[in-house]
Predict the structure.
Amino acid sequence: MLSIQQMQNFDRHAQDTLGIPALILMENAGANAARTINEHYNLKNKNIIIFCGTGNNAGDGLVFARHAKKYGANVTLLLIKPVLRTDETKTNHNIIKNLKIPIITTIKNQKYDIAIDAILGIGLKGTVKDPYKTAIETFNNIDCTKISLDCPSGIDADTGNTRGTSIHPDITITFHDIKKGLNPKNSGKIIITDIGI
């Protein structure tokens, strides 16, 4: 199990010492999450909605979208804010637009088989506020299988405490190793997947 600081140190070591760009780490995370979920659920013809925030967790979700489409899923992205924060996430957003994967800003009355949480990740500080609070509540109310990428949004990955409100996933696909605050009660079934470090 890793603390947030330890995971961030691994990330920095991979980039600064090993020379693995953040874009490759993000690609590995999203691609391996899609592969893992496809192995469990067979994504062909599944209707999937991916809730994306603005940082690197959103970038993981954008990569996941591309690979889920490769497995035959019908993918829709919901962007919580129009402005993305990192270059890697912006790059993957442009790829999604080039692929013409649908991007929406409000939930529609479509039936989804799987909802993916790529909203906040492990870098959360403070209490969850709108528009993320409303997005998390909307996500939790969707009647389908719910999966978080790396850490359920709204959960403190060190303590396991809820920062005001949080995603209630059936499964959490966590990257590299389990974060020490995650447990079956707040994260559902926890599956570790590789990011290449």
Notes: The domain at 4-193 is CATH 3.40.50.10260 (Rossmann fold). Residues 22-41 form the longest helix (20 residues). The radius of gyration is 15 Å. The CA atoms of residues 52 and 118 lie 5 Å apart.
